[in-house]
Each structure stands twice: as C-alpha cells, then as structure tokens.
C-alpha cells in the first residue's frame, strides 16, 4: 500500500511536469482579478461646503448656457429645475464615488425603511409647516422688502398660462424639485456628514446650505427654518423618505394656492388669519414633539439611525 501511494505521487509529479511543458505562459486571455474599490474619503465640513459650491455653480452655469441659447429660458421653471437636476446629479455621482464607494446606493443616501407613522406624519408636517414659514417671510419682508424686479422674476417663473405649463410647473415643483434637493442635501450630504459628525452638526450644516441655495436674502430665515425642520426629520427617522414626503407636501400647498389664487396673490407678503396661524404653528410644534417621542420609542427608527451613523 505504501509503494502504491508513492507510485501515485511520483506519477502525479511526472504528469504535472509534462503538462507544464505544454502549458501556455501567456496570461493575456485570462480575466483580470477584480480590483477592490478605493477607500472611502470621509466627508468633512469643508468638503461638504466645497461640494455645495460645485453643485450650485454647475446649476448656475447650465442655466446661463440654456439662457444664452433661448432667452425665454430665464423665466422657465422647468428649465431651471432641469439645470439644477443635471448639476446635482453629476455632483452626487462623483461624491458617492469618493465618499461611499463601497456602500450600496440606498445605504449611501439613507433610503431605508423606518417607523411607518413617520410617513403619514411627514405629510401633515409638510402641510402645516407652511404657516410658520409664511410668518417668517412676512416678518422679514415687512422690514426688508423684496425688490419689485425680483418679485416680477418669481412671478414669471410661476406662470401657468398654457395647458402644458399647468401640468409641468406642478410636476417639477411638487415631485422633481423636492426629489433632487432631498437626494443632494438630506441624502448624500447629510448621510456623509453623519458618518463623521454628530447628528446636530449634520442637521445644522445641511440646513444652512439648503437655505443658502435659495439666493433671495429676505427669504433666508424662512428657508433656514424649513431646512432645520426637514433635516431634523431626516435625523430622527434615520431615513430620507420622511423628509422627502414632507418636502413634497410643503411644495404642494404652495402650488395649490397658486392655482386657486394666482401667482400675484401668493407673492404678496401678508399675514395669515390669526386662527389659521395659531392652528398651523401649534400643529407644527405638536408634530415635532410626536416625531421625537416616536424616534425614542421605536426600535425600527433606532435601527435606522444606527445604520445611518455606521
């Protein structure tokens, strides 16, 4: 038996040597070994600001190009949102490659499930959030009015004179615009910052950048409050979905008001009736408290936040 085993071993060596003589040493036809993804670079505060500047500059450049080709594009809301979507999408593609190359897309942007009540409450939150935002706008513009020329530009952007405009303007305002902004701000930026900083730092920075993107300085306090509310909802739920839903319903209220009252009525800064103001501000505060309670008690929301910070 030992001899047989030695014979088999010796035969195997001979066979391997003979096969090796005829073995082609050219490895050109072999598939290259899969390369490991590059290491993720942490998203720091300076880098987040830099990416914001790059994306915003890209959107402005695209708007200038389209305006030079078609003068009416400067007053075309669909064109403006398309330019923003193009610049933000390109920036997000590079950001994900640099800061989250080894993460699935859904995880990198925070697109994960959370407690189901967040989805329903987010819709209500987006509706009532219009009230404190309108009051902030009214108080600021009463002291520091928006120039008439700028109001006219906003009026031109919100025109819905033709049947096509009555379809496209609500579509881009309620669906496309919120999706683009939420993916960029509360998706890529806030998710990346949360993996390095505390939730408070991520919320404050993203809210500030979101407000800065809306270039009218008189509206900065209102947009900062909106940004804080949406970013806070994103942080409490651990998911991008609630802030996206709230943003869409927030814009939907403004579009419905435009359709019912007309753009000039919407752009005219005036206080809301006292009863609507009290109910809206009270509901906003009550929903904020409910969000905090659910976030603390829900195991699903806690897991989502843990995944968000991992």
Descriptive account of the structure:
The protein has a domain at 108-154 and 162-309. It contains 14 helices and no strands. The chain has helices at residues 2-22, 45-69, 77-99, 105-108, 117-128, 130-143, 148-157, 163-194, 199-213, 220-237, 241-261, 263-267, 274-297, 299-309.
DSSP E strands, number: 0
Number of helices: 14
Mean pLDDT: 88
The unreliable regions are 1-28
* Shape assignment: globular
Strand content: under 5%
User: N-to-C terminal Cα separation, in Å?
Assistant: 59 Å
Whole-number radius of gyration?
27 Å
Specify the biggest β-sheet.
none
Q: What is the helix content?
A: over 70%
Order of helices and strands: HHHHHHHHHHHHHH
Sheet/helix structural class: mainly alpha
Secondary structure: elements and pairs:
Layout: H1 2-22, H2 45-69, H3 77-99, H4 105-108, H5 117-128, H6 130-143, H7 148-157, H8 163-194, H9 199-213, H10 220-237, H11 241-261, H12 263-267, H13 274-297, H14 299-309
